[in-house]
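Sequence and structure are kept together here, with a separate record for every protein. An example record follows, reproduced without changes.
>
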Amino acid sequence: MDKYVQRVHKILVSHHFDGEIIIRDQTTRTAQEAAKVSGVEVGQIVKSLIFKDAETNLPILILVSGKNQVDTYMFQETQKVSLTKADANFVYDCTGFHIGGVSPIGHTQNIQTYIDKDLFDYDEIWASAGTAFSVFQTNPTFLQKISTATRISVN
């Protein structure tokens, strides 16, 4: 098992996860790719998007339904946080994962996390397990709990 997947697996097991991590032959780098290879709707895919707090330079993680885009203006207004883009090096430094395989859990540092309320429209959601080829199936309540995310509207 890949070192990134092992890190995610360890967190899942510590929270009594009863599913499995699936390694795909095809990439799951985008929500559309992940939905296609998983045989689910794009909305069931969890996009783990890292932004940077413009004032503190700390990472902000927003777990977004694959069908949605983050309205950064609305986020900034409601959360009182000014966002800037995070580059690939920043994402890797704060999560320990490469872009395209960022998991919602198992980061190398604590990250303020938010979760898209639209993910709760589904009983089953799919998230990256640390690489562009690995995913795990869960439900939004479990994901919110293990990621200690705050539920928000993203658009």
About this structure: The chain has a mean pLDDT of 95.
